[in-house]
Specification:
This protein has helices spanning 3-16, 19-22, 26-35, 52-56, 64-81, 87-106, 133-148, 155-181, 187-202, 215-251, 304-310, 313-321, and strands at residues 257-262, 269-276, 279-286, 296-299, 325-332, 335-342, 356-361, 367-371. By secondary structure, the chain is an alpha+beta fold.
Length: 376
């Protein structure tokens, strides 16, 4: 999950805690600690390792062992530089925030080495899209509504301003998702989102209820909404996996791996993927729709050039990271080109493969170039 979302979530959870548990610096401590694990992404900027971003990101700082090491250090820093001198409380809050970050990453399909350094296996629960706008909104909106109703004299102006900004962002998100899914801009969905936002900012004004609440009340409602949303995603994911398994049974496939991966903006849209020895089947579907999903087969090339490319350490690292890889082979003059792509990251409306690792060889099988196309 992106750092902004984990930060919003950390602040939401901290504000929802009772004062005795939160303390005078609890919101700051949980918010900061909840984004600290993503500092490991900086290692990629200072490394010449082409695959360093895959091997170092979501590794030790996103592991349980990392929590054991980092939580005491963060608590010590907060104890030194904040008003709160209760070290045990700061230690508990730091560990809580780090575990929250790991949870949000495990919920996506990217993969997290939660047992690093004892295991390099990447675990993924496949409940949330990697950048989930709905999840972010659930975590952010309680803060904004609480801020709106903090001052009765400015509530109307704040509410209208935030509604306008969020409606514009909803339009942008709708446009991005429509492009990703390969469909037209959904005006009905946009109108619904705009209406829901207006209702969220207006509802607390009923009989002045919102003006009598502190921020903790709004944040506790937000936590309840978060639980409901995650439960909805979990149930929908279970139903989606069942549809993928039904497809496998009908086709009697030899399966190496299968999954239902979340799609943006809706907890009911999924991409079904089945890895077989010959290639990958992929299909997109809505669990609320009737009828079985349609799958497309992507064969994986096999020849001497593919075999030579696959022996490269960079390709081995790429294949370790991927979950549904497909190898494609083509020629360009006297050059032999092998391209690997992970269909986990293929957008429905995209014709060109994304996240592609390319190896170029000559006729003798010698490697001429290797890397991601943008880096060639």
């Amino acid at each position: 999950m992106d750092p902004l979302t984990t930060g919003f979530g950390g602040a939401l959870l901290a504000k929802a805690l009772p004062d005795d548990y939160r303390g005078p610096s609890g919101v700051m401590a949980v918010t900061v600690a909840s984004v600290v694990p993503d500092l490991d992404i900086l290692s990629g900027f200072f490394s010449n390792d082409l695959m360093g971003g895959f091997t170092s990101h979501r590794a030790f700082t996103h592991s349980l062992a990392g929590v054991v090491v980092m939580a005491p250090l963060l608590a010590l820093a907060f104890w030194r530089f904040s008003r709160d001198k209760n070290y045990p409380r700061l230690l508990a809050l730091s560990a809580f925030a780090l575990l929250w970050h790991i949870f949000t990453d495990l919920a996506t399909s990217w993969g997290t080495m939660v047992f690093h350094p004892f295991s390099r296996d990447r675990l993924a629960w496949d409940l949330l899209f990697i950048i989930d706008f709905t999840f972010t909104a659930v975590l952010l909106l309680p803060h904004l509504v609480a801020w709106t109703y903090r001052d009765p004299r400015r509530a109307l102006r704040r509410g209208v301003l935030l509604w306008a900004i969020l409606t514009a962002l909803a339009a942008l998100a709708n446009s991005l998702v429509s492009t990703f899914l390969g469909v037209a801009f959904h005006w009905g969905l946009f109108a619904l989102l705009s209406g829901v936002l207006a209702a969220l900012f207006l509802a607390p004004a009923f009989k002045g209820w919102g003006f009598r609440q502190d921020r903790a009340a709004f944040c506790r409602i937000g936590v309840a909404a978060l639980v409901i949303y995650l439960a909805t995603c979990a149930v929908s994911h279970f139903l989606a996996v069942q549809q993928v398994k039904e497809f496998v049974r009908e086709k009697n496939l030899a399966v190496e791996a299968l999954a239902a991966l979340p799609q943006p903006l809706s907890p009911f849209r999924w991409s079904g993927l089945v890895l077989t020895p010959e290639g990958v089947y992929q299909g997109w579907f809505n669990v609320l729709a009737s009828g079985p999903p349609a799958f497309r087969f992507f064969p994986s090339a096999r020849n001497d050039y593919v075999a030579r490319a696959q022996k490269l350490p960079e390709v081995q690292t790429y294949l370790w990271f991927t979950r549904f890889p497909v190898a494609r082979y083509r020629t360009d003059g006297d050059r032999h080109i092998v391209e690997y792509t992970d269909l986990r990251f293929r957008a429905r409306g995209s014709r060109a493969p994304s996240f592609t690792f390319r190896v170029t060889l000559n006729g003798n099988g010698d490697v001429l170039t290797r890397g991601f196309p943008d880096a060639d």
